[in-house]
Amino acid sequence: QVQLVESGGGLVQPGGSLRLSCAASGFTFSSYAMRWYRQAPGKERELVATITSAGGSTSYTDSVKGRFTISRDNAKNTVYLQMNSLKPEDTAVYYCKRTNGPYWGQGTQVTVSS
């Protein structure tokens, strides 16, 4: 069955960096676009970044453009989210998701605080 397992979250000071990973299994990873979402306390889940199946195209929500980079390694069945210049408002649970279906990871907590 489809499995998505996120890792890499943690506590970081404002201005710091983290790299999230999402390991996928149970489907042909290279055939699907992948997405990162986040959900802050009391807020709706929002789409953060998308990458196409071959990795040739990416898109971002405005609030993270220039700071976050989504990438993937199809040989490792893994999608990444490099997060730089982190701000307190980036604090949230981050989820990866496969397109074309309700397939979500369990989430990883990112907390940006001094």
Describe the protein's architecture and organization.
This protein has 114 residues and is mostly beta strands. The chain has no helices and eleven strands. Strands 2, 4, 5, 6, 9, 10 and 11 form a seven-stranded mixed beta sheet that branches. It has a four-stranded antiparallel beta sheet with strand order 1-3-8-7, with no helix packed on it. β4 (34-39) and β5 (46-51) form a beta hairpin. The mean pLDDT is 97.
Structural class label = mainly beta
Uncertain regions: pLDDT < 50 for 5+ in a row? none
What is the chain-wise order of helices and strands?
Answer: EEEEEEEEEEE
Biggest β-sheet strands, sense, barrel? 7 strands, mixed
Beta strand count: 11
Helix content: under 10%
Query: Tell me, what's the shape?
Result: globular
Distance between the termini: 40 Å
Radius of gyration: 13 Å
Count, helices: 0
Summed up:
It is built from no helices and eleven strands.
Which helices and strands occur, and which strands form pairs?
Elements: E1 3-7, E2 10-12, E3 18-25, E4 34-39, E5 46-51, E6 58-60, E7 68-73, E8 78-83, E9 92-98, E10 103-104, E11 108-112
Parallel strand pairs: 2-11
Antiparallel strand pairs: 1-3, 3-8, 4-5, 4-9, 5-6, 7-8, 9-10, 9-11
